[in-house]
Amino acid sequence: MNVIVNAVTHRIAQRSREERRRYLDLIEAGANDQLPRNKLSCGNMAHGFAACDASDKETIRLVNAPNIGIVTAYNDMLSAHQPYAAYPELIKKHVRSMGGTAQVAGAVPAMCDGVTQGQEGMELSLFSRDHIAQSTIIALSHQMFDGVVCLGICDKIVPGLLMGALRFGHMPMLFIPAGPMQSGIANSEKARIRQLFAEGKISRDELLDAEAASYHSAGTCTFYGTANSNQILMEAMGLQLPGGSFVNPDTPLRDALTAEAAHHITRITALGNKPKALGKMLDERSFVNAVVALLASGGSTNHTIHLIAMARAAGIIIDWTDFDELSRAVPLLARVYPNGQADINHFHAAGGTGYLFSQLMQHGYMHSDARTVWGNSLADYATEPRLDGQQLSWQPSQAESLDTQVLAPVDSPFDQEGGLRLLTGNLGRGVIKVSAVKPEHRQVRAQAVVIDNQHALQEKFEAGLLERDCIVVVRFQGPRANGMPELHKLTPILGVLQDRGHRVALVTDGRMSGASGKVPAAIHMTPEASLGGPLARVRDGDWIELDAVAGTVTVEVSQNDMAEREIAHDNGAGQVGVGREFFGVFRQATGSAEAGASVFFETPPIVNQDSSGKAVNPKHQAIV
């Protein structure tokens, strides 16, 4: 193993020892009731199978064959989830062929960040993750099931499903994806048209035509944002069948993979000879593998929040220092938009996850012995599925990339490091993704333009107030303020200013996701402004330096002067409208971004810092 990867894994295991022990004790109590239906009264069970056909009723009541719970995030507004309409009946059919039964245990909400981007509803997006976790728990609390299938792909949905399923970690669980849509217009053309619209040079109809040509059919969006990052991470953690994430919908191979997943979950329950309890299977190696895969592929910055929350649900504590150290050791092996011009279909065709994992394992960057839901360990994931007639099989991944402009080998990477860095300084702690940022743009010193919502930037741009070097500070965008929405509306404007020769950057306590693009962006700044963090004291005209090379973000104001400044306050705009008032309890209870921005877990604000802003012995604790 790579020395740094090994050291970080060991540190995580040591740090998590007590919390992990408590979690394992919790699921062990569930494992003692290997047949949960034995706990149900006759009335309970009769309610549970009342709507089943006679054959399924007989199988369930005998309690000697697996009953699989399906938790679905289907809706037909999300293109990625539209194919799931037919999946429950398919899964039931294939599980019956193995002598078991399957039931839809429940459904979870599934927001589309693409639809809510820049709208009020986006302020519910991050909160939907914890709501999905709760919904998953409610679905599985009936104690009717021996295994779990999760149908989910997109941004907050996969993390929420996994967090909820981990509470039932005495059972096996696997995800079944539906695959990406076919490629649309070139990503470079899409970006060009967006910038033209931001400059007022084309009409809204022209912009809509381009967007519709990009997002055009059923399947996951093809850029490398959080949804497709989810897919790579679930494979890296061994929670999906190998090589199946990016097989397009409505193809024979996609159907064969769905059938095999349904068959496989029946083989690994406690009723079989090779049980694979989810909570025991996932350990610190699994989460380090996920971080490494994220870094090597240039994945979404949202997972500096979601992976932390998912790990905490398994009793494992990771933080941004772990991400930073791993990023400096792990090479960047993929160029997928917005970190390149290829899309996820090109990535899959070039070699996909099988080639990526093979390279990383061969060079000691991933734990090949980590346990997985399929096969014996992650070593079995250096493969890709093949369909010969009706016969599904897995073959070793190809030895060489078929397109080294999209997927590179370890000995010739796009960058020697993963490009995700921790930023520290007198403005707090945050992260920056530099894999899509050219080296000449990674260090910016300029005066601050301070705004309290993303829409204000458009007004300043149209008024001609941004034709200069500047660092835009967008504050009151953290989880406590308004749910930490993604701020994609900023990207085209900042991109235009950068293309005009200005040195620009973004500093915010909000999110930017996997689509942060070519402009340097210090995001997830903590403590957030709503809690009195340093951003609440920054003023227009302050000189700020963002240095992604050194890993610092600082305002050139003395500590005494900053302390004497009045703290700005948000206007509470993120409280009413499209139902946001129903989520006030989430805003009040959610933890910091570095603790996973969850209502379930909290890490006290990091107040013990040295002069550079780096944490000194930060403490971690759970509130549940």
Structure commentary:
The chain has 23 helices and 16 strands. The model is unreliable at about 605-624 (pLDDT under 50). The strands form four sheets. It has an eight-stranded mixed sheet with strand order 7-8-12-11-10-9-13-14, covered by helices on one side. Strands 2-1-3-4 form a four-stranded parallel sheet, sandwiched between helices. The chain is globular and about 75 Å long. It folds into two domains: about 5-180 and about 215-395, no CATH class; about 420-575, 3-Layer(bba) Sandwich (Glucose Oxidase, domain 1). It has about 625 residues and is an alpha/beta fold. Helix 11 packs across helix 14 (about 285-295). The chain starts with a helix and ends with a strand.
Can you give the mean pLDDT? Answer: 92
Give Rg in angstroms.
Answer: 24 Å
Across the major sheet, the strand order is: 7-8-12-11-10-9-13-14
Helix content: 25-40%
Low-confidence parts = 604-624
What is shown here, in short?
With about 625 residues, the protein is of the alpha/beta class.
Write the layout of secondary structure elements.
Elements: H1 3-15, H2 17-31, H3 42-49, H4 54-62, E1 67-72, H5 87-96, E2 101-107, H6 113-116, H7 125-140, E3 147-151, H8 157-166, E4 173-175, H9 187-198, H10 204-214, H11 226-236, H12 252-267, H13 278-281, H14 284-297, H15 303-313, H16 320-329, H17 344-350, H18 352-362, E5 383-388, E6 391-396, E7 420-425, E8 428-433, E9 443-451, H19 455-462, E10 470-474, H20 479-482, H21 490-499, E11 504-508, E12 521-526, E13 543-547, E14 552-555, H22 559-564, H23 584-589, E15 601-602, E16 621-622
Parallel strand pairs: 1-2, 1-3, 3-4, 9-10, 10-11, 11-12
Antiparallel strand pairs: 5-6, 7-8, 8-12, 9-13, 13-14, 15-16
